[in-house]
Design the sequence.
């Protein structure tokens, strides 16, 4: 076969040249494009039919509107509310008038000589017409009915509040004494500074231990500072001024709370070696 004839032949004919074209493979490949076109066209037609069907029936659905009710010329009146029912006050209990009932004093039965009898016991007639009591009293015969006790009249207050007087007296003995802020070391340095500032004024009578007593309140404030011994000495003056002009102390404690209490603080001036 020449070159011109080959160029004019279909690719499928060239592929099946000198082969059995009656075999199914040649026919399938030859009609492939036609069958594909028919299939796509069929699918498109089916899609259009389904879409048209739904569109048509959706437009046929009618939404029913609720019926319109004609109210006419009616006037709606507001029903008045019922008056609140107030329950009546409970009836007050009426107090029976006080009665003057005859009473007979209760007497222990004992065998006693006639000359030793202080008061004769009541006879049966008195007991039947009187009420047993701690005293003998003349009055109306007792009919067996016990009169209720009189209702007290007052202000319905159990008791008048009592203004308790706060005891402001400082305590002498407490669980924990008042202390200088910073502890014992801070107190020692504070006193040493005060003593050294007046070291040139000390005399022979100033050597020793002065006892200073004072009161520390619940806020740590100091008051009532005084020396109990070595009064009139320079050491007593320095110790009293150091405590009076110093910082606030930590208050004493009693039962877990701060209390106002006395504090005794010794200050010692040693003789130089």
Sequence:
């Amino acid at each position: 076969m020449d070159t011109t004839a080959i160029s004019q032949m279909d690719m499928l004919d060239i592929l099946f040249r000198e082969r059995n074209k009656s075999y199914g493979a040649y026919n399938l490949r030859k009609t492939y494009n036609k069958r594909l076109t028919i299939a796509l066209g069929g699918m498109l037609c089916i899609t259009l039919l389904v879409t048209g069907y739904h569109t048509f029936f959706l437009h046929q659905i009618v939404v029913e509107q609720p019926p319109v009710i004609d109210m006419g010329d009616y006037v709606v009146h507001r029903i008045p509310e019922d008056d609140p029912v107030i329950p009546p006050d409970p009836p007050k209990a009426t107090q029976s008038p006080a009665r003057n009932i005859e009473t007979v004093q209760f007497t222990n039965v004992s065998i006693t000589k006639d000359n030793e009898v202080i008061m004769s016991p009541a006879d049966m007639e008195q007991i039947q017409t009187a009420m047993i009591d701690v005293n003998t009293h003349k009055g109306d015969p007792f009919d067996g009915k016990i009169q209720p006790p009189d209702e007290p009249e007052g202000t319905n207050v159990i008791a008048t509040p009592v203004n308790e007087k706060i005891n402001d007296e400082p305590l002498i003995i407490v669980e924990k004494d008042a202390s200088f802020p910073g502890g014992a070391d801070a107190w020692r340095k504070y006193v040493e500074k005060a003593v050294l500032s007046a070291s040139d004024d000390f005399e022979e009578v100033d050597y020793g231990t002065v006892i200073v007593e004072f009161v520390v309140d619940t806020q740590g404030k100091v008051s009532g500072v005084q020396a109990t011994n070595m009064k009139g000495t320079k050491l007593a003056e320095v110790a009293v001024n150091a405590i009076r002009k110093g910082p606030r102390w930590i208050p004493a404690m009693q039962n877990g709370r701060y209390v106002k209490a006395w504090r005794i603080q010794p200050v010692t001036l040693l003789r130089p070696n």
In short: The chain has a mean pLDDT of 76.
